[in-house]
């Protein structure tokens, strides 16, 4: 197998691992929130701890000085991380879960649209097929058809706005994260992004007052676990994977997260999986399989490298 082939396989495995860890983090976070923790303060703490840990990792690693990435790119990446988390959870608080999740995972389609419009990249038939399978599969996993036909659907305008913002933020951190990783590497790129996100959350907390969740000892082990196992590690895996596979493909593989979340709910919480959800899971798996069986999109990689001046 060629080095490029091995690299892309490792990249897909890294992105898939990140998606699984994010899904596990969502389940753990819900458990901690049900115990009385503040969602906003949990999200803030994850960003702060992650920024410190990642900065220490970069500091301790002996390596040649790297090129400084453009400051606007770092800021966009960091803000998109914070915005994706905040807007997604804000949409969950205002919309049926099925609607919020489905809108969030239109992000891979937005990434493909970006490569078409901005990078002049023409997606292959296989990529489009994989995208349709993955996004439709997420909608079925979330049981969106049942929600839409229930006759009791009431959509909040602010909820829709937050869910759309979450999708754009998710797409933005995929695109900016890849370009940042190609400039300074995954570790430094993610560290810089979380420093920006951490500063933003400090500003937010100053307007909220005392962070009660972080002053309760019973929550601190959960905060540490969420920060390391479900934030630092998955972001490192995801951005490392973005160095090795096209961003549009990585976006499709990321739909493994809602599939994993459904599986965790089935195993851990004893929730029932309907036939529609099982069909959705199979469609997500099919989409991921199709995109991995395609030859690496070398032209897209070259376009992106050219965009950052390589």
Write the layout of secondary structure elements.
Blueprint: H1 3-34, H2 39-60, H3 71-92, H4 97-104, H5 107-117, H6 125-141, H7 144-148, H8 157-184, H9 186-208, H10 220-242, H11 247-253, H12 256-268, H13 275-293, H14 298-307
Helix pairs in contact: 1-10, 1-12, 2-3, 2-9, 2-10, 3-8, 3-9, 4-6, 4-8, 5-8, 5-11, 6-11, 6-13, 8-9, 9-10
| Backbone structural class | mainly alpha
The largest sheet, given as strand count, sense and whether it forms a barrel, is: none
Question: From N to C, what is the helix and strand string?
Answer: HHHHHHHHHHHHHH
Flag low-confidence runs: 297-310
Name the shape in a single word: globular
Strand tally: 0
- Taking the alpha carbons of the first and last residues, their distance comes to 26 Å
Question: Rg to the nearest angstrom?
Answer: 19 Å
Q: What is the number of helices?
A: 14
Integer count of domains: 1
- Give the DSSP E fraction (strand runs of 2 or more residues): under 5%
**What is the helix fraction of residues, given as a range?**
over 70%
Task: Please tell me the overall pLDDT.
Answer: 83
